[in-house]
Amino acid sequence: MADRALTHSLIYSTETLIFSILALLLLAYYRGLGRQYVKFWMISLSALAVNQFALACENTFNERDVGSVLDISIALLRQVSQYIHILFLIFGIYAATKQKNVTRKMLFIGVSSALLIGIFAAVFYGFDVKSVFNRFYLRESLTAFIFGSALIASAFYLFSANINHFSGKIFLAYCLLVGLRYISYSFASIIFLTEDWFRELSQTLVFVDMGVNTILGFIFLIWMQGAERHVAATAINRAKYLGKHDSLTGVLNREQVLEKLTNEMKISKDKKQALCVFLLDIKRFKFVNDTHGLKVGDLILGEIAQRLNQSLLKPKVVGRLSGDSFMYVIDYESEKQQSTVAEHLHALIERPYLVSQQEVHLQCSVGYCQFPTDAEVADELLQKSNLALFQAESNNIQTVKYEAGMQSHGRHLLAMEKEIRQAISNEEFILHFQPQLNLKSNRLDGAEVLVRWQHPTKGLLAPGQFFDDIEALNLYSELDNYVLEKTCQTIAQWYKTYKRRVPLAINITAVEFQAQNFISNIQALLIKYEIPPIYLELEVTENVVITDIDLVMNTIVVLQNMGIKVSIDDFGTGYSSLAYLRKLPIDKIKIDRSFIQEVASNDSDLTIVKTMVELSHGLGKRVLAEGVETQQQLQLLRNIGCDAVQGYFISRPISAEEFTKYLKRK
Ligand code: C2E
Ligand code: CA
Ligand code: CA
């Protein structure tokens, strides 16, 4: 008898060692992978190690008194560790298969139940010397029953989750077999407890369990490797797919759209058919983003893409051109068909979108033109549909078909081009400066440079009044370079007169960020005006960063290495996910004005801003809030830990002269 107890305590001690090592191995995996299920299985194995340790003690001190401190402690350790082991085994399975994290609430409920049942099983009848059987039922039969049921349930769950890697199947078999073993043991222990053969069987089971538990440890390891390989494979496939498709909606991106359209044009030409190119722009989509959040906005955009793709009219091309504008191309026979298609498109878009049990209603504007009558190259078709769409939007008409007269807008642009180029060479564009206040030090961080047009006849114009033309004419590059040089001049000049350099932030358009000589140009300016790079900051708007992530990312890395700061402007208005943020080596995030406007009166906006601040800080980035107009907003932002603010409450954008006065006053 004593011999046997010694053998058992040796076995259990060995197992304690094995599971501790396996748990450590999982810990190493967890450090690398950071997946929740790995953590849970690590806890599960640690609990198993504790459990085996308790069993080793039980066999070592097998002559202890019932109800003694030693007896109760061992029982407690055994019971609680056993329940924790099975609980985290199951949590791990859930987290691994659902790709979803177990919530704190679930954890709390699970752990407290495991503790309660464990304590109950150990303490109830634990002091009563005579209740040998009751104690046994509670500590052995009940435990085996719960254990077995949990494993069989897990087997069914794994079966329904349909895991296709190999370890999933072994795991299923494991849960089923071991589950059956415990369930049958539980019943047998109630009925045959006093029989000799049952006792023999229980003794043998110790060896079986040793093997079985060790297998479990290895299943965990194999699973993790299989799952991670699977994740890597899907990521690679997804990356390939994203190269061709719009990451958000799964439809073709702008470049692809144009390529496919060109293709379809060739085919139609051969078949002597005509195409109709529709552009759709969702109205007030920003409102959806603002009220329901970006995630919902993304989902809706995805749904729109799907509806267009699956439309009964069998479109030749469907794609997303930018934020909330889509292209939809069909071939047609009679002109009458065209307006029917437009109606069909409106109906598609206007069908309600179901978002967390709430209906969202949307409308769109449609502009279209036809091939080959209106144009014979893809770019031009796009441009003409765009002109029609522009008319639809600005006159609030549902659908507009392109007409030759719309070109008059073109004539306006032609005149503007001359005017703007002249304004640049005459230095009619001037800089205004809006101070940025550091909330931690209560000092000025610097200022944002905002361009104004001192127009000879129209007076001082804000960007909103001429940027549409600049965009249409593709003159951003000229303007940005102009502002860049003027800014460097200003920093140098202030240094000369006031012996003080003020950090200035400039808005840079996307296009510019991707230009070949952008970086060398900046470098040349910094040298020419003898400006240390830390005094220059570049603001890129969020939308842009996301569409050409690789290119922009490279540029940002180079700028960063040069010592120039880069920040994300208008944060929260783009269609990007916050996940991108982690990858971008930027210094600062500027939360868009629209969130700040309501921050003092709207709880959900406050929550959003708070989350943005926490998230950005978590990623080691600074946060500036734009458009602060009241004391109350300022106070709230200070309270939630925002680093800096900018807005009318601090100061409006002011001229260079006023700004230097402002500096002196401070
Ligand atoms: P932004 O970069 O978001 O600049 C902030 C805008 O918000 C400025 O408008 C500023 O006057 C305004 N603003 C600042 N504080 C408040 C406030 O408390 N309340 C309200 N309601 N508005 C506030 P602005 O000067 O009209 O510029 C508009 C946009 O034009 C800028 O938005 C920026 O995207 C662009 N922009 C301005 N200057 C340049 C430039 O030199 N180059 C480029 N590429 N873009 C520029
Ligand atoms: Ca800005
Ligand atoms: Ca902004």
Gist?
This protein is of the alpha/beta class and 666 residues long. It folds into three domains: 2-240, Rhopdopsin 7-helix transmembrane proteins (Up-down Bundle); 254-402, Alpha-Beta Plaits, CATH 3.30.70.270; 414-664, EAL domain (TIM Barrel), CATH 3.20.20.
Q: Enumerate the distinct ligands.
A: ligand C2E, calcium ion
Number of domains: 3
Strand order of the largest sheet: 8-9-11-12-13-14-15-16
Report the CATH topology name of the largest domain.
Answer: TIM Barrel
CATH class of the largest domain: Alpha Beta
The percentage helix is 55-70%
Structural class: alpha/beta
How many strand segments? Answer: 17
How does this structure look, described?
There is one protein chain. With 666 residues, the chain is of the alpha/beta class. It folds into three domains: 2-240, Rhodopsin 7-helix transmembrane proteins (Rhopdopsin 7-helix transmembrane proteins), CATH 1.20.1070.10; 254-402, Reverse transcriptase/Diguanylate cyclase domain (Alpha-Beta Plaits); 414-664, TIM Barrel (Alpha-Beta Barrel), CATH 3.20.20.450. The chain contains 24 helices and 17 strands. The strands form three sheets. The protein has an eight-stranded mixed barrel, surrounded by four helices. A five-stranded mixed β-sheet has the order 2-3-1-6-7, sandwiched between helices. Helix 23 (631-639) links the parallel strand 15 and strand 16 (644-645). Helix 1 runs parallel beside helix 7 (196-244), helix 3 (69-98) packs antiparallel against helix 4 and helix 3 packs parallel to helix 5. It is elongated, with a radius of gyration of 34 Å. The chain starts with a helix and ends with a helix. Bound molecules: ligand C2E and calcium ion (CA) (2 copies). Residues 448, 507, 539, 569 line the site of one calcium ion.
